[in-house]
Write a structure and sequence with these properties.
Length: 355
């Protein structure tokens, strides 16, 4: 019984913390969407280790975006630290993302709103809109999987206040049955609108323990003077105000076992949509949930490219070389067999103890 109570308390604290972090949503001001931007995820198996370090992404093309306030996308209020670079790839099983953004080091252990935070959002339902986080017009008291069906959006949110840099967070065995993460607050959620957001597996009509947190991720800041090996006791890990770049690295299976309309399902060779949000404690002031920046004021297309087919020239050359090697091997085998049958010399057996 104490163990069950502890688990419930942890889950409740996660839900309370998330709801507080995303309160007070206002109306979005109009803006002109950048309709020419796209993010492309090429097939690159075995290219990335999920550790927050950007080294293994050096050969992957990035896509650069201005960060404007989500509710007031005016260029005068653009994030002063610089633009965000988004990179993506897949290995046929998982899709990977790297978010890269300049920012002075800010970290306050256990206080997510005094640390940078990021989120990815994807449409799930056919009627899901970028604006109003799915766009269902129902209130918190009436939204449900029936009244808001078709407005579902899938959200990954990573608040780093309890996350050690370079360590892996997200789905873990202790949180099976819902989308929470008791260790690093890298959570898997779905929403119908800004006021109807829930961890995967939880809903107004009841909970379903078949849900999972399918995301994993790590973070890093390049002002750190060590490459790895941080422990919780090393917090705050770096010097406050140190200039540098934040890196947030994530992965998730292309397809999940979701049966609740709470996870986006990617398909290789097809396009989906994505939104990216960024929170930062400007001038050391804690941020509120609505005070986030976005890479665009609407969805950005996300292309999951198929593995490239071998080009005709290289394929023919490889085929010719393989055929030549096979013929040569066959000729050598025939010659060795013929030579063996023409040889009458016998080799005497020598016991091993006489050698």
């Amino acid at each position: 019984m104490p163990r069950i109570m502890l688990g419930s308390a942890v889950l409740l604290s996660v839900l309370i913390g998330y709801c507080i972090a995303h309160e007070d949503h206002g109306e979005v001001q109009s803006c002109e969407s950048n309709s020419f931007s796209r993010i492309q995820a090429n097939f690159r198996p075995g290219a990335v280790t999920l550790d927050g370090h950007p080294d293994d992404w050096s050969e992957v093309d990035g896509f650069e975006f201005s960060l404007l306030p989500a509710l007031d996308p005016d260029e005068e209020n653009e994030y002063k630290g610089g633009k965000m670079t988004v990179k993506a790839l897949h290995d046929g099983h998982d899709v990977f993302f790297l978010l890269q953004v300049d920012g002075e080091y800010a970290y306050s252990k256990g206080e997510n709103s005094k640390c940078p935070s990021v989120a990815l959002m994807f449409p799930v339902g056919e009627s899901a809109t970028y604006h109003n986080m799915g766009g269902c017009k129902e209130s918190p008291g009436t939204c449900s999987d029936k009244t808001c069906h078709g407005h579902e959006v899938d959200i990954m949110h990573f608040s780093i206040g309890t996350a050690i840099p370079g360590r892996l967070y997200g789905g873990n065995p202790l949180d099976n049955g819902n989308g929470s993460d008791r260790f690093g607050h890298l959570v898997d959620l779905y929403a119908w609108n800004p006021h109807c957001r829930f961890l995967d597996g939880l809903s107004p009509s009841g909970n379903d323990t078949s849900a999972e947190n399918n995301w994993k991720g790590a973070w890093w800041h390049d002002s750190f003077n060590v490459h790895s090996g941080f422990l919780e006791g090393d917090s705050p890990f770096g010097t406050s105000g140190q200039k540098g770049t934040y890196y947030f690295e994530f992965s998730r299976p292309i397809r999940t076992m979701d049966r609740l309309q709470q996870d986006v399902q990617f398909t290789i060779g097809q396009s989906n949509k994505i939104a990216v949000a960024f929170w930062y404690p400007v001038d050391g002031k804690p941020w509120s949930g609505f005070q986030h920046y976005s890479i665009n004021c609407d969805w950005i297309p996300l292309d999951i490219f198929s593995p490239p087919s071998p080009s005709g020239g290289s394929w023919n050359a490889a085929l010719a070389f393989t055929l030549l090697l096979s013929v040569t091997s066959l000729c050598v085998s025939v010659f060795v067999g013929y030579w063996s049958t023409r040889t009458n010399k016998a080799v005497a057996f020598t016991p091993i103890d006489h050698l």
